[in-house]
Amino acid sequence: MPSHPELLDWLATRFVKSGWNAKALQKHIVMSATYRQSSLAAEQARAADPENIWLGRGPAFRMPIEEVRDTALAASGLLVRRIGGPSVYPYQPDGVWESLAAGAKYPLSTGADLYRRSLYTAWKRAAPPPSAIGFDASERLTCIVTRQRTNTPQQALILLNDPQFVEGARILAEQLMRDGTTPADRVTLAFRRVITRGPSASEVTQLTRLYETTREGFAAAPDSAVALLATGERPRDPTLAPTELAAWTIVASTIMNLDEAVFSR
């Protein structure tokens, strides 16, 4: 049921009085203070109205895949900010081009080209980047006005397993281990790098517990830690213990997957 039936009645009455002018109704809605407000709100306001029943803040929307990828690369320090140049070919699952593009071999980029902004990613209409399609990007076979905004399990799997994001999490984890002395320090540094705020005491406790549990798991299966750290072209720092680094990679990946990391405000 609608949460504000009186508001709907008022809008319906205004609609009728305007001579059923749909354009005027839409203009009135989108120019209202309620529609234009930010999704940011004080903690007290969120605690008093967690479901936003009273429309005290605007909605947050997931960023397009290009911004999600570039944000992850920027947080890890991998993003190459050079402007201009030819298209690049970042990580992509094996066999996509071969199966969809008449057997053409995917020319995977190397070095700095792997970390160029998503704007420069080559796009083949017969075989578009799978991660982009998973995040509602157009296949570019037809012209569209705007992209859909969906939130699916497939998108979570991309953020957790795509080599670009796993490698970014590992590079960020290396920085955390070098710059932070305690688990709490490292969690705080990660929060500031990824979502530009400090963590709450509860978040520090939960992520510290995640680090400890994950470290124990990798200590019992060191081969899985080595396999995780081998993801991506950039070699891992050999001076850092693999089990420790793998555990912090999981923590960094978890923070990169928070709503605050992939939603615009």
Task: Compile the SSE list and pairings.
Blueprint: H1 5-17, H2 22-30, H3 33-36, H4 43-48, E1 61-62, H5 65-76, H6 96-100, H7 130-134, H8 153-161, H9 163-179, H10 183-195, H11 201-220, H12 222-229, H13 242-256, H14 259-262, E2 263-264
Antiparallel strand pairs: 1-2
Helix pairs in contact: 5-9, 8-9, 9-10, 9-13, 10-11, 10-13, 11-12, 11-13, 12-13
Structural write-up:
With 265 residues, the chain is mainly alpha-helical. 53% of the residues lie in helices and 2% in strands. It has helices spanning 5-17, 22-30, 33-36, 43-48, 65-76, 96-100, 130-134, 153-161, 163-179, 183-195, 201-220, 222-229, 242-256, 259-262, and strands at residues 61-62, 263-264. It has a two-stranded antiparallel ribbon. Helix 11 packs across helix 13. The longest helix has 20 residues, at 201-220. The radius of gyration is 23 Å and the shape is globular. It starts with a helix and ends with a strand. The model has no long low-confidence stretch (mean pLDDT 92).
